[in-house]
Amino acid sequence: xxxxxxxxxxxxxxxxxxxxxxxxxxxxxxxxxxxxxxxxxxxxxxxxxxxxxxxxxxxxxxxxxxxxxxxxxxxxxxxxxxxxxxxxxxxxxxxxxxxxxxxxxxxxxxxxxxxxxxxxxxxxxxxxxxxxxxxxxxxxxxxxxxxxxxxxxxxxxxxxxxxxxxxxxxxxxxxxxxxxxxxxxxxxxxxxxxxxxxxxxxxxxxxxxxxxxxxxxxxxxxxxxxxxxxxxxxxxxxxxxxxxxxxxxxxxxxxxxxxxxxxxxxxxxxxxxxxxxxxxxxxxxxxxxxxxxxxxxxxxxxxxxxxxxxxxxxxxxxxxxxxxxxxxxxxxxxxxxxxxxxxxxx
Length: 346
Description:
The protein is α+β, with helices and mostly antiparallel strands. The protein has helices at 21-33, 78-90, 104-107, 124-127, 132-150, 175-182, 190-202, 244-251, 267-278, 284-311, 315-344; strands spanning 2-4, 7-9, 37-43, 49-55, 61-66, 98-102, 111-115, 211-213, 222-225, 228-232, 239-241, 260-261, 265-266. The strands form 4 sheets. The protein has a 7-stranded mixed sheet, sandwiched between helices. It has a two-stranded antiparallel sheet with strand order 8-11.
């Protein structure tokens, strides 16, 4: 195997078609790194297949992340995601080191090799049991890290899917999900179609600000070392757009300002922490609008997964995933209509 510009390339003398994927990954890592590796296990994740390897004789692990053939998003661009993560690292953001980015010629799908960040990934059930002072510290850390991301100069980063430009309508982040709805083959949602029109009529009134948006900023994509964010994961949804989307994404399930988010603090407390860290002034109207935008995006991904499951020939997917995502889709529809009613009552 050879490498060109950080892109792994397969050797014509190696046949990998019938070798288990873990062995194939280990073979290429050993060829690339010139040292033995040991398979540790699968990494958790919703979109990608992830495989963890340890480097023999070193206290270091690597993650090999394979892009899915089909997932909740229409397009995956591992090469541009790798470029963005390298730019973010150079800007001082806590992201995994990109060891290499491989194209589909190696394993049949693009992939990334990332340095494994040791730490904890929390969920809201865990954090809700933390004492109040720790929950506030963690929420402030999240707000400050997010504000640092949104403060990056657009000249410093090249977001995947940005189509070569860093300037434009703050609602451009939503355009890919317009395409998601348009390309559904089996299912549809009148609620999501209605909310799409509603958003396009209301987002034009938002402040004209474009930053890098993570797109999936939440506890599940943060690695913690004590109460410090040591790693921000999963940049495939990163786009240029309105920074308030990321706040709305974290708050989208809150029914009121007093509702807890992420098991840490109330929605209004987190918004105030973000306002203080970023210098922005999100008001109730802003919060509800971007909760609606975030909920609509979630609804589009849920409906796409349901659509894929119903088209699948795998009975296991039809039996399990269609019920799961159908339930999620109905729940999201109800939440979106409730949020719009709240917004229009202001």
